Amino acid sequence: MIRVLVVDDSTFMRRSLKETLEKEKDIQVVDTAKDGEEALRKAASQEIDVITLDVEMPKLNGLETLKKLMATNPLPVIMVSSLTEDGAESTLKAMEYGAQDFIPKTMSNDKEAFGKELRREVRAMARRKSIIRLKYHHSPQPAPRASRSASSVSRKSANMQAGKGPRDLVVIGVSTGGPPVVQKILSSLPGDLPACILIAQHMPASFTGPFAKRLDGVSKFTVAEAKNGDKLINGRAYVCPGGKHIGLKLNGPLPEVWITDEPRDALYKPTVNVLMETAGKIMGRKTLGVMLTGMGNDGVDGAKVLRDSGGLLIAQNEASCVVYGMPKAVVDANLANLVLDADDIAQAIVASVRG
Prior knowledge:
The longest helix has 16 residues, at about 110-125. The chain has 2 domains: about 1-135, Rossmann fold (3-Layer(aba) Sandwich); about 150-355, Methylesterase CheB, C-terminal domain (Rossmann fold, 3-Layer(aba) Sandwich). About 40% of the residues lie in helices and about 20% in strands. The protein is α/β, with parallel strands linked by helices. The strands form 3 sheets. It has a 7-stranded parallel beta sheet with strand order 8-9-7-6-12-13-14, with helices on both faces. The N and C termini lie far apart (about 50 Å).
């Protein structure tokens, strides 16, 4: 049984979240709290596996609650967020402070979809409890990392399999738990990186602008929300607008950024498949694909096209993923040249790009 604490200042939301979570028998809302102070007391006094946490609350808001929780009693936290610009900023900050993921409150207008997504998130986060406690709870040691020899192909053999560099384009696919990992990677890259970066992050439309702005603030190069027709410029990164797809198209002989609504029936917008497939077809062996933490298997079909076209593919390892779904799919399909801890991916990108 997964034991959940629901924290929200709205009586209606507390009741609604409890009813939604308890529609399936493996999840139990053991308690609720109306503010951060009450949440901290209740989390400390009983066995809790996952917390859903509102951002705006009286007495102690969600961000302050999260910081105190991670310092004293670290647990998996899912932010239940508004889709305002302020809500996006606060939610992205919360993920830096230790929240594992977020779910938009507006999804509750579609009760069936909201409930399915929330329960899926809770189950995924509950499996991370022991790792989160090890990472944050009075321990200077990082979460366990898979050994380099067991989890990665050597850089030499990777280049033999996929052809030598340099590579002009880096395409990143990412979902659950992704914003802090993407921020870690981009902030570690040099400003003179001789490649352009395209990012497909599963994220609502109102979040991608603030996300790009946050990345721009910590990176040594320009990061912006992508527009159709943007040029591929070295040392620049583009984040796909939420609700759209990002890929490449040819404008005469030159590739440029393509923002599209198609496929309209894709489960995720953006879908990583469009990004990796079009990059593979147009840029071929000059493409480096990076598959980061996320649920499901979005991107595996596009990754196959990328690899078949001579591109190189890095997958994040299980130990450093919030959810080992999307990277696992490409590893299981034998598409990953390198399987690396999140801390090692930036260095591998630089090495691959520069050849």
